[in-house]
Amino acid sequence: MRIDIITIFPEMFEGPFGHSIIKRAQNKGLVEIHLHQLRDFTSDKHRKVDDYAFSGGAGMVMMIEPVAKAIEHLTAQRKYDEIIYTSPDGELLDQPMANRLSTYGNLLILCGHYKGIDERIREHFITKEISIGNYVLSGGELAAAVIVDSVVRLIPGVLGNEESALSDSFQDNLVSPPVYTRPREFRGWKVPDILLSGNEKLIKEWKHEQAVKRTRERRPGMDV
């Protein structure tokens, strides 16, 4: 998979992409992540990429010209399965969406900033708008990093144990059940006996029951 990201703050991705699973995926050649500085595509001598909104109002708007040039520069080199814009009013990212995106070959992500981008970019270039929650961030870089992490970890070969991703929360429309490790008892707090029984059938049933219970408690809007 190849992921291209258009941003005015490429340095913000050094931490998220330079460690752990994302770094290992890149080292294995399972994903390529390329960062593109939006300011490289502006014709403004001061490398400006924002301007005041027509009709006034507080905040600046990302200009159409540099964004259009950046997207066209990249789409001239390859076809993208999705051109994504990170936006608070986009479709909420969930596990099924991450699953779908992980099957694609090329993704392009545009990081939003300021009060947003010129609407004509959304109308003529963007194929998918994604939000990571009903709140506003200072910029789309953090959202883009979340999207990339949720997708890359699902690519076959990225995780050491392929079953790990399949047993994640939300893969079966349920959150994960409680998990425990050694020691069996700590300060009088014990691991549930069923998990130590060795009875795989009963353990599986217990985990499902706990997942359903926890989902109903913590995600009452989910259909379980």
Q: How would you explain this protein's 3D organization?
A:
Strand 3 and strand 4 form a beta hairpin. The chain folds into two domains: 151 residues, SPOUT methyltransferase, trefoil knot domain (Alpha/beta knot, 3-Layer(aba) Sandwich), CATH 3.40.1280; 47 residues, tRNA(m1g37)methyltransferase, domain 2 (Trp Operon Repressor, Chain A, Orthogonal Bundle), CATH 1.10.1270. The strands form three sheets. It has a five-stranded parallel sheet, sandwiched between helices. Strands 3-4 form a two-stranded antiparallel sheet. Strands 8-9 form a two-stranded antiparallel ribbon. It is of the alpha/beta class and 224 residues long. The protein is built from eight helices and nine strands. The model has no long low-confidence stretch (mean pLDDT 93).
